[in-house]
Every structure is written in C-alpha cells, then in structure tokens.
Amino acid sequence: ALTIGIAGLPNVGKSTLFNALTRASVVAANYPFATIEPNVGVVPLPDKRLDRLAEVFGSERIVPATVSFVDIAGIVKGASEGEGLGNQFLANIREADAICQVTRAFQDADVVHVEGRVDPRDDIETISTELILADMQTLEKALPRLEKEVRGKKAEPEVLETAKGAMKVLEAGTLLSAGAQEAGLDPEILATFQLMTSKPFIYVFNTDDAGLADEAMQAELRELVAPAEAIFLDAKFESELVELEPDEAAEMLAETGQDEAGLDKLARVGFETLGLQTYLTAGPKEARAWTIHKGWTAPQAAGVIHTDFERGFIKAEVISFDDLVELGSVAEARSHGKVRMEGKDYVMQDGDVVEFRFNV
Ligand code: GDP
C-alpha cells in the first residue's frame, strides 16, 4: 500500500498527531491482509456514501478505504550532512510515497521550540533546505555516471537533460514537487532519480483555537505552500476527539465551529495527494470502498478484489452513486436504463457502484 510519511522538526506535535492517527486506526479484523506495524497508522477514509449504500442494500457492515501514515524520526538542521538521526530520517523519507510535513503554529511557552521561536515559515524553510541539499547530493553523484552512459549511448540524452534541469530547480531553492512542471521536466524520467523533493507534499499546521479562527494567517500559509495542500488542525484536540464516541465527537467539533475533524481532512487530502480514488461495491453483507489509482480501467479495478476477477474479466455493471441513491434500488436504476455495461477499456470514475462479471 502507498504510505504518507509524517515528518517535521522536533517538538511540533508529530507524535501527538501520530498517536491520534493510530488510535483512529481501523479494526484490524476488517483488514486481514494488512500487516500492522508499530510505526504505521492505517486510518479509514471518511466516506458518507457508504452509509447510504448500506441503507439501500441493507448491508451488515461498512468497509471504508484506508490511508496509511508512517511515523518518520525527527529531522534536525544538518540532516543532509548525516548529523544525528539524519541518515535514518532520509532513509525513511525515501520509502514514503508522499510527505506530510507537520509545522508548529501553536503558542505555548511550556513547549520549547528547537529554534527558540514559533515561525512556521522558517521551519518549512529549514526542512525544505535539508531535503533540497540531500537531493542535490544525489544528483551530483548521478550526473557523472549519466554523462558517461549518454556518451556510450546506454542512456537517452533526455535523461541527462532532466537531471541537469532538476539540479537547476533545486539550486534555485525550489522543491521539485513545486517546480518540476514549470521547468518542463519529464515526470517519468524524474521519478527514476528517486529524489525526495519530487514526492508530493502536504503541510499540516499544528495550531490552537486562535489559529483555527485566524483566516488571514491561514491564507498566508496556504499561499506559501501552494500548490501543495495546507491543513490546519489542533493535534492535542484531535487526540482527545478520537477518544470520544462518534456523536460526542461530532458535538465537540460543532462546538468549536469546525465542520470536519482534522484527521478526517488529513485522510481525505492524503488519499487525494497519493493519486488514489475509490469505487464502491454493495450487497447484504457489506458496503465497501476499494482503492485504485486514478485512471485505472475496469479490469485493473476488478483485480483489487481478486486477481481472478481481472484475469477472467467479462464486463462491469456500473451505476453512478447519485443515480442509485436517487432511484433507491438497483432494480429501479435498471428499469430507468441507469445500469451501464462497461467493457475492458472503461476508465473507472469516482462514485461508480460496481458489480463485476467474470469467468473463472
Ligand atoms: P514531536 O517531537 O514533533 O513528536 O512533538 P510531540 O507530539 O511530542 O509534542 C511536543 C510537545 O508539544 C508535547 O508536550 C505536546 O503535548 C505538545 N503539543 C503537541 N501538540 C500541541 C498542540 O496542538 N497544542 C499545545 N499547546 N501543545 C501541543
């Protein structure tokens, strides 16, 4: 499964957030094939459509899609030079598919800030710099090799050009996730270099009541990290929220003027950032969301349920969720011509409710 690495400076609330994520983790019984590791939190992707589907089909249980978060050891200034936990940190970040950077935006004189003051802008700069320096080192090592390969016609000249272009972006102090497109770098070639700053980023600002209400501050930080997503939450509050029953939690959220829990927001944005989407299945036993990559075809999607489904794929019967809910049942949807027969080239759409037909 794809994972999101949680990273950030020490004392910004990473552990608090990660503990909340672990406590929000799905019951392992629903996911018999998931290996549960201590530094991985597997949280459900909130999806209200599953509740509606379970009503329509009288399903016994709901199985949401999940998002996996990995706790990454703290970064310090000088990580790119292998200082302290630096090497471990970089190794962990390399393994993650996206990076969620937690930044402190709460005031609390009792919690020491490593740099002696709370300044999200500066903290982001510190971490970006370490990752940029580490990527520059990687490229510096790769360039002589690539030059030799191109001279010996063992590699395409585009590969070398892309590496040089990436170096320019980094030298300008820009993360590749933010600057590669503008520089016209080929994403597929870029991916072969295994650089950290070309992974998608999400920024979590760990803030307090004052921060959650401060729209001007939020707008400023959103602009700073764009095109990456920014999420504002109170990690301490979130860790208390996950201890409550769902209706108590909803009440508590409403009292603080929030429409969605920060962890739910993080799961949603994380899932999206990983380039994933879901399709839905439903029956008397369960209403379930299945995870696929954006752009996958019907047979690929079927393969997520079982490899036999992909191999023996005949067709998919697809109803869009909105049509199904509006008409109230599969039979009604069918009589209104809203059940589509889709073949092996069909590209799955968000909200497809599917039944696969296959040969065994
Ligand atoms: P980490 O080093 O990034 O993992 O940070 P921790 O999660 O251990 O948090 C460092 C300290 O900050 C702890 O004492 C937490 O209780 C406190 N802390 C974390 N989040 C918040 C928050 O949202 N508000 C306040 N006031 N304190 C927090």
Automatic annotation (TrEMBL):
<comment type="function">
    <text>ATPase that binds to both the 70S ribosome and the 50S ribosomal subunit in a nucleotide-independent manner.</text>
</comment>
<dbReference type="Pfam" id="PF06071">
    <property type="entry name" value="YchF-GTPase_C"/>
</dbReference>
<dbReference type="InterPro" id="IPR004396">
    <property type="entry name" value="ATPase_YchF/OLA1"/>
</dbReference>
<dbReference type="InterPro" id="IPR004095">
    <property type="entry name" value="TGS"/>
</dbReference>
<protein>
    <recommendedName>
        <fullName>Ribosome-binding ATPase YchF</fullName>
    </recommendedName>
</protein>
<dbReference type="InterPro" id="IPR027417">
    <property type="entry name" value="P-loop_NTPase"/>
</dbReference>
<dbReference type="InterPro" id="IPR012676">
    <property type="entry name" value="TGS-like"/>
</dbReference>
<dbReference type="GO" id="GO:0043023">
    <property type="term" value="F:ribosomal large subunit binding"/>
</dbReference>
<dbReference type="GO" id="GO:0016887">
    <property type="term" value="F:ATP hydrolysis activity"/>
</dbReference>
<dbReference type="InterPro" id="IPR013029">
    <property type="entry name" value="YchF_C"/>
</dbReference>
<dbReference type="Pfam" id="PF01926">
    <property type="entry name" value="MMR_HSR1"/>
</dbReference>
<keyword id="KW-0547">Nucleotide-binding</keyword>
<dbReference type="GO" id="GO:0005737">
    <property type="term" value="C:cytoplasm"/>
</dbReference>
<comment type="similarity">
    <text>Belongs to the TRAFAC class OBG-HflX-like GTPase superfamily. OBG GTPase family. YchF/OLA1 subfamily.</text>
</comment>
<feature type="binding site">
    <location>
        <begin position="11"/>
        <end position="16"/>
    </location>
    <ligand>
        <name>ATP</name>
    </ligand>
</feature>
<feature type="domain" description="TGS">
    <location>
        <begin position="275"/>
        <end position="358"/>
    </location>
</feature>
<dbReference type="GO" id="GO:0005525">
    <property type="term" value="F:GTP binding"/>
</dbReference>
<dbReference type="GO" id="GO:0046872">
    <property type="term" value="F:metal ion binding"/>
</dbReference>
<keyword id="KW-0479">Metal-binding</keyword>
<dbReference type="InterPro" id="IPR031167">
    <property type="entry name" value="G_OBG"/>
</dbReference>
<dbReference type="InterPro" id="IPR023192">
    <property type="entry name" value="TGS-like_dom_sf"/>
</dbReference>
<dbReference type="InterPro" id="IPR041706">
    <property type="entry name" value="YchF_N"/>
</dbReference>
<feature type="domain" description="OBG-type G">
    <location>
        <begin position="2"/>
        <end position="253"/>
    </location>
</feature>
<dbReference type="InterPro" id="IPR012675">
    <property type="entry name" value="Beta-grasp_dom_sf"/>
</dbReference>
<keyword id="KW-0460">Magnesium</keyword>
<dbReference type="GO" id="GO:0005524">
    <property type="term" value="F:ATP binding"/>
</dbReference>
<dbReference type="InterPro" id="IPR006073">
    <property type="entry name" value="GTP-bd"/>
</dbReference>
<keyword id="KW-0067">ATP-binding</keyword>
